[in-house]
């Protein structure tokens, strides 16, 4: 048991220790590593930047949630981070770094940005040092620090100024993987109460996005992580949606692992794998529809809808209950988009192959796959809401995954000239708060692409090639040929 704990702690430390980066990269990892010992007391400037950051980050003039929905889509992790920062020096270092970097970039203030990079370097050093202590490594302080360091990456780049693709997307994925390793070492039993539970809930959302980006299972997608952390807590509609989102990376991995090329496996084995994927896809779709119905009924109870009948849609209410609720709806549409478009690709490959899949064809006819196009359109038509002045940097941070999935979908399916695609690209170019989202999307698009396809997603042609690879369009074409 002790050796296993040492292994997990070492792996988490490895995820934090950023290495093999381009020395010319303007990111946090070029900041001076050697610095004088930081006082536990914050400077006046640090206190001011902290207040400015949270004022800029949190949505303002937000209509909020009704008494029915209130709490289930709130942001308790924000108060958790601030509470830990008030008494834990490492968390405070990381939070100060995030504030200085975000406000420095927002104001085009190189002095604040450089201070943020120095604080980032110190926080990274302190976190790695804490990981060598078995007691400290299990603390909420260390988990919160790693979570905030990942958050720093969201505000590190500026899509309107960067001449090159930064490493911030890859670095964000490393931090998320680090939080997963830390949570695995802590165990779900230590994520059921107080700050530990709030941090786990927040980290699980990032882990779900990371799993889909990497197209592989998250460490937090197993059965014990879906139950034990709620031993003393009520599951919210956010928790229930994350239950479905956290398994998507594993499902994408199943698609990628279908036997290829066809001549190297038995047809019966291949058909069985496809049927298992289809069965699980149908199960997830039913769960998603049940989640939607539950949310619509909550909106009826709040007086927002007259009825939750078949004509009621989330598009009717998505902007009526604050940005936390809006983010859930955008995630819901994103899950549908990825789930159904990937299934369509598999079915296209099956139809174009020589597999005699009579039984599978009957199953597909009985369980038709929904069209992914309406979900992409919903995201494209509503993503501007993330960048309204009242959305704050919260909107900028959370726009990344829904917009990435949708832009990649349009690019991979030959719709890079569609009005929806052009609208999203224009938003990223022209809206000031979208500068952070733009830089992050350009960076993270590179991560899953093979070396020969890595490019600049601001170039439509290069984005199309990277998107086709991520979505598996090129794989489907190769399998069918």
Helix coverage percent of residues? 55-70%
Q: Mean pLDDT score, rounded?
A: 84
Biggest sheet details: none
> In angstroms, what is the radius of gyration?
22 Å
Number of helices: 21
**N-to-C SSE series?**
HHHHHHHHHHHHHHHHHHHHH
Total count of domains: 2
Q: pLDDT below 50 for ≥5 consecutive residues: which ranges?
A: 17-40
Shape: globular
Structure in words:
The chain has 21 helices and no strands. It has two domains: 2-234, no CATH class; 248-480, no CATH class. It is mainly α. The protein has helices at 2-16, 44-57, 76-85, 89-106, 110-130, 134-137, 140-154, 168-186, 194-214, 237-245, 248-256, 267-301, 322-352, 358-366, 373-382, 392-398, 400-412, 419-430, 434-444, 460-471, 473-480. Helix 8 (168-186) crosses helix 9 (194-214) and helix 15 (373-382) crosses helix 17 (400-412). The protein starts with a helix and ends with a helix. The protein is globular.
